[in-house]
Amino acid sequence: MEILRYAAFTRDGHGGNPAGIVLDAADLDDAAMLAAAAQIGYSETAFLTPIPDPDGALPLRYFSPKAEVAFCGHATIATAVARAERVGTGTLTFRTPAGAIDVTTNTGDDGVLRATLTSVPTTVRPLPGDDLTRLLTALRLTPADLDPAWPPRVANAGNDHPVLVLAERRALAELDYNYDLLDTLMAQHAWTTVQIVCEDTSHRWRARDPFPPGGVREDPATGAAAAAFGAYLRELGDLTEAERLTVWQGEDMGAASELLVQLAPDDRVSVTGAARPIPA
Asked: Phi and psi dihedrals of 274, rounded to 5?
């Protein structure tokens, strides 16, 4: 198989989250895809079947080095950009285990090719107190670290992501969690990442996303979590369809990434980002 390597949600051509991409996985079974993802070693590798299903969508699956994942935002953006570079820009639908993901690619006035994914319908629900206590313990945070204006929630735009809003940038920068404890807790609840954010300025947030289920300590750019965060802000009445939110992620791990979030007219969320090939 031909394996491509792209970084998604790059900022000014730098940073981003690396993803493996196989643009023709029609002949690969589950074992072969999992083995390839483990060999590549990135948090996610996307496997595209270039033959449309009866609804005209292209099947797309995602594997971490440990298991299949229902949806991955950065690997979707990377796949869409890599495909557009070869066959041209436009609109298409990926059929993922989480559902149908509409994607549009275009080249902006700055000459940068970007992709926009629109998530499956989103949900937001409370994070029970006992789960919050255990989560804070695993993250080595306390209730005093949280911003009382923003209640903890579990948001879903294809995967479940607990959302925690910190009161200070310092607490986000100094995040140092118990990997094994958090891995166990997230496995029990089928959480994909933990979206930990703090407000920078109006409609600009900084984020970090621990990702033990993917076999990595932290994700430098998480499209699925950014979409879930958009749903969280809509639920709390802080984001409207006319507004765009910028999430800056990865700075504290040396891989600055930019994710642009906008609400869809329905209960979905769109996330836009650039992607670039990773030199061999």
From this structure: -95, 165
Predicted confidence band of residue 253 (pLDDT cuts 50, 70, 90): very high
The model's pTM is 0.95
Asked if 229 and 235 count as a contact pair (C-beta separation under 8 A), the reply is no
104's CB contacts (< 8 A; 6+ apart) are: 90, 91, 115, 116
The domain made up of 123-254 has a fold known as: Diaminopimelate Epimerase; Chain A, domain 1 (3.10.310)
Q: What does the pLDDT look like over 140-154, one tens digit per residue?
A: 999 999 999 999 999
**In the chain, what are the domain boundaries?**
4-119, 123-254
Q: What is the token pair recorded at 221?
A: 């750019």
Cβ neighbours around 273 below 10 Å, total = 30
Q: Which neighbouring-strand residues pair with 232?
A: none
On the question of a common fold for 4-119 and 123-254, the answer reads yes
- Dump the DSSP string for 59-91: EEEEE-SSSEES--HHHHHHHHHHHHHHH--EE
The count of C-alpha atoms lying within 13 angstroms of the C-alpha of 256, restricted to the half-sphere facing its C-beta, is 6
**Cβ burial, residue 88 (10 Å; 0-12/13-18/19+):** exposed
pLDDT in tens, 87-114: 999 999 999 999 999 999 999 999 999 9
* Cβ-Cβ contacts under 8 Å for 32 (sequence gap 6 or more): 1
Average pLDDT, the chain: 96
Choosing from 44, 168, 174, 251, which is the catalytic residue? 44
Q: Look up the CATH number of domain 4-119.
A: 3.10.310.10
For residue 199, indicate whether it is catalytic: no
